Amino acid sequence: MIFSARVLLATIAALLCLPSAVLAMQGDEAGRSVSSPDGRLVVAVDVTGEGVPQYGVAYGGEMVIAPSRLGMRFAAMKGFDEGFAIVGSSAGSADETWEQPWGERRFVRDHHNELVVNFAADDGRSFNVRFRAFDDGIGFRYEVPAQQGYDAVTIVDELTEFRVAEASTAWWIPSRGWNRYEYLYETTGLEEMDIVHTPVTFRMPSGIHLSVHEAALVDYAAMSLKQYRPGIFAADLAPSATAAGVVKKGPFTTPWRTIQVAPDAAGLVNSDLILNLNEPNRLGDVSWVEPGKYVGIWWAMHINDRSWGTDFIHGATTDETKRYIDFAAENGFDGVLVEGWNTGWDGDWFNNGDVFSFTETYPDFDLREVADYALSKGVRLVGHHETSGNITNYERQMADAYDLYEDHGVRQVKTGYVADGGDAKWVDDTGVAHYEWHDGQKMVNHYIHSVTEAAKRKISINTHEPIKDTGLRRTYPNWITREGARGQEYNAWGQPPNPPEHTAILPYTRMLSGPMDFTPGIFDLMPNERPQLEGAAPRHSTASRVETTLAKQLALYVTIYSPIQMAADLPENYEARPEPFQFIRDVPADWEESIALAGAVGDYLVIARQERGSDDWFLGAVTDEEARNISQPLSFLTDGVTYRAEYYLDADDADWETNPYAMDIGSRAVTSETVMELPLAPGGGAAVRFYPMNDE
Amino acid sequence: MIFSARVLLATIAALLCLPSAVLAMQGDEAGRSVSSPDGRLVVAVDVTGEGVPQYGVAYGGEMVIAPSRLGMRFAAMKGFDEGFAIVGSSAGSADETWEQPWGERRFVRDHHNELVVNFAADDGRSFNVRFRAFDDGIGFRYEVPAQQGYDAVTIVDELTEFRVAEASTAWWIPSRGWNRYEYLYETTGLEEMDIVHTPVTFRMPSGIHLSVHEAALVDYAAMSLKQYRPGIFAADLAPSATAAGVVKKGPFTTPWRTIQVAPDAAGLVNSDLILNLNEPNRLGDVSWVEPGKYVGIWWAMHINDRSWGTDFIHGATTDETKRYIDFAAENGFDGVLVEGWNTGWDGDWFNNGDVFSFTETYPDFDLREVADYALSKGVRLVGHHETSGNITNYERQMADAYDLYEDHGVRQVKTGYVADGGDAKWVDDTGVAHYEWHDGQKMVNHYIHSVTEAAKRKISINTHEPIKDTGLRRTYPNWITREGARGQEYNAWGQPPNPPEHTAILPYTRMLSGPMDFTPGIFDLMPNERPQLEGAAPRHSTASRVETTLAKQLALYVTIYSPIQMAADLPENYEARPEPFQFIRDVPADWEESIALAGAVGDYLVIARQERGSDDWFLGAVTDEEARNISQPLSFLTDGVTYRAEYYLDADDADWETNPYAMDIGSRAVTSETVMELPLAPGGGAAVRFYPMNDE
């Protein structure tokens, strides 16, 4: 290539002046910047000499997003790329508090300033970008009004960029690989990043933490970030199997592109930005959406005690289900998940979703009998639909399948889309199969379709192998939880299983998007070392084990938020350890408030949550492979009240690798003045329940 | 996700049995395997239980490509993905030797066995894969016959995979980034690779070297490799700005997918596989395609002594061009390149190819005068067309532009496509601009169009910012060289400049695809430390310098093949060092034979080449940042002949960093029995000319 001196000089000048450029923009002209209510965050908007729209973000006077491109290009008409001027803008602000039907906190404050910038070109092209600046970050989205020639567009390239300080550290998982989101997080400098999923978290050299993600992903392809130049991450929309890009008709808006900003890691965890950028509840009365805890016929398959199909020892039998129902009823669980109840599991279901019926049961599973038995015990079945990523087979049966469950009192269905990345299948009207990414526009729409169809039957959906969460639970509160990261199951057969740091990274990355059905609570930490059952599939490698202490399994109920939490292990393993099991019996799944108290990405987290409609608090703390002693002030407790703290701590000699079961379980009186010592073992954790002593 | 025991067992079994699987396939059924003429390479073909076509490759009994998928999917019809059986096959072989009009060697032997496998599905879908097994690797391509419903297809996914041993080391550059191919090569394990360009080179744990690339890329998108699972690299076709994939009409064939295999690094360099998989010369008499050496008004711009436009000191003036013509004539150069002769360089040409005229000269450049002056001196002007990647502006002017050069005796034109990756521009009939990757289908076709249009005027094309080379020089011998990697120019302004290892990696990676206009021969190794000329643009950072010894600059004329080689430095810098300059005067650019003698990727290379139509040989050796002493047998020389060896070696105390000019220049008598000591300094090299002493 060739490189002119003039261009080089301009580039250097631009690089040198970036921080002042954005800050200067703020003051230069009205209508080109917006600040957060506390004034710390500033978004500035401008166009380059070529009329390329760009924005930048500063936080506390420090540039956090250097001037970055905005725009999009289309397959068949002029792009929104250059030749634009800012022809108008409007400002506004909002400060309202809304109530979640369930969530990490009951009341969420949406306090932001808004700026809508109108970009137009001489030839009539126009679009708007709506920015919202909150104290905890910013969001912006494109709003494309009706205009001549743009009634139907195919967006081949969204030009949105995020320019991040090159010396930052990042926590990320790759995008466009064989898996969807179930990778171990990488902790690297930017130079090792190519194309990554969001949320992606950055720690800048100054210590400021950023997370880039999106909110309200509807009828659009998910945005990954492609590092195009060092430090410049460009939006990379999931491809379509049938179109050159994202297909939109009429005026449209994109999902919100979000940048959460906090001075420290815990600050990210306390952000409500993603929820605030979603539309309010569209379902009306959602009292039928019920947070709670469940057990199920699930882990037994992962450790090969049972099988989904009838090839080894079938798990989903009437008798076995009743056994779980009895256990659930005795221990206060709300639901019993049953996987492998429907026909289709005996063939090669892994690559062939066509095999599944969602209404036909295996002969040894009497749906009516177990459903009625459950209801008689005050428990509900939790439904299960594995699609193998074949959405056509699922959609064809969907009404009947949800009707069937509704008829049997089922209020929650766990769905599954096990297919490799790029291999989610649909069949068009001519019988031709197409294969999509799980986060492509077609699949985005399918997942929402399943949620809205389920809502008609008062059924909530727990999506596995999902599209990533973008906060749509606010709009559709029956989208109650989902997977979308490496969960507990990897500890049964993963090579490697989840290392201790995994659950010290998730809260700062995946969990910023929303709840996760991680399925904590494994009590037999080395199941693959047990003797194999006669007739069962062989045990997995003993290298696959749970790399936590038992105390950390309890802590996960607090550190990893989900409104429905599984107690994932076998009933007999809980019965064998009643003392620690008491914490699982006690811990709720719905919260009045949540406060991340301290933490560092990949190292540790301490979080406290107040039970919804109660004075009780729960604390969870997790560490990575390092032991650490945390002196935690309990200032979140109500002043002047004495609480009993029932604690489940790692014993002095506990260690995930050598002595994982050693626990110090007890109780003591504490107040908001108390500084509680939390001794975290390597791979360890701490779980504490607090309740006012006058409740005793 | 969930994971059935059955699937896991099948997966493990498949993994364990892979080598025997491919080898077993070989013997199982006729028509499903093909071996190289020497029997060392075996390609086996099969379908899985689901009817998924796959192939594998073994070399000397070792699996080099584990069973890997074949197939493709379309936007609007059933894919060639599963449900296929092998319904027929045909075998053949060829052994012919063809002559290159110019090249690394005059005669190329094409000796291969061939297997065409016919895949068909019950519903009538059918396609063929043609495999060719050579001693130095294999190639295969899809051949899609005419069939109902497939008259026009959009290929949204080519399913071709290459499964490589996970413990391999790779040398690669990223794909889909801002640059095209001008990256420093990475030397890593597979875990750091995401999406990479080809050729990509692997060294397996056994020491076997592989290079995956493609041949004869015509009317198709270039293939990058995306590591989809660990060790599984999937074809990733460059996207289109207007279609969902590669658009093909009627029956079609794809480019050849190639895997060069050699027991050592030097073996890769000696491979002719890519050329052998291209179609023969379509241009007939190409005696007007003239290998040779050139100088030009070029480096002066890169070091900011001159400028392309008139903003600083304009380089392309009539007087300056005549000065270069005089120098060329005096020193035996064939051409003088002049960049910046045409209008358009004074604006923001970097992002705006519309500014360029390809027929209008700057007022201070008299094309007729300099062209005639050159011809009177036995020299030809070398033309230059920088397009900034705007192919519409170029194509509109192309006929006039080539006519103009033809009228002035120009036989070679250097073209340029400086635009970021994904930003090569074309404008459709409705005036809408589209932006493509340089290696997308649209651009692939444009580059060939420029070559065939030029051929009509007996003009050869030297493409900068090109599509990667895939051997099309065999078919279009006027596509004489190209850039397509980080060249010498980065030593003027690169941050960082090319490190010493760069030229010890290129021969094993980029150069496997074909010639490169690297432009060696910089004699002033620290130009940015010179005083700035009055009126010139400021010097670049002194951190940008040439990280070689002077001897290595000479060696590059032998180690980096190009049929047109530039002596890139300013005439005065050569005049200041006449002794080493003598080698550049002597070294030819066209060869009778080339033999890579020894080397290791990223460490060093020793190569010998015999001058076309002469008994003279030339040897080049380069090392990375490590000094090394090579004892090189001269067995390539004709037995019984005594040669004079004129050597240009690093002096004992030479070092690229501290003492780059120190050379040991001299001559001695040698024979094919001689073992010549080549002392390579850190960042050093060696250049030797051998000629029979009876010629003296």
From TrEMBL, chains A, B:
Membrane-spanning parts: none
Signal peptide feature range: 1-24
Keywords attached to this entry: Signal
Superkingdom of source: Bacteria
Keyword Signal included in the entry's annotation: yes
Every Glycosyl-hydrolase 97 C-terminal oligomerisation domain range: 590-690
Keyword Ion transport found: no
The Glycosyl-hydrolase 97 N-terminal domain, residue ranges: 34-280
Domain annotation Glycosyl-hydrolase 97 catalytic: ranges: 298-485
Single GO MF descriptor: carbohydrate binding
Protein name: Alpha-glucosidase
Classification lineage: Bacteria, Pseudomonadati, Pseudomonadota, Alphaproteobacteria, Parvularculales
Gene giving rise to this polypeptide: susB
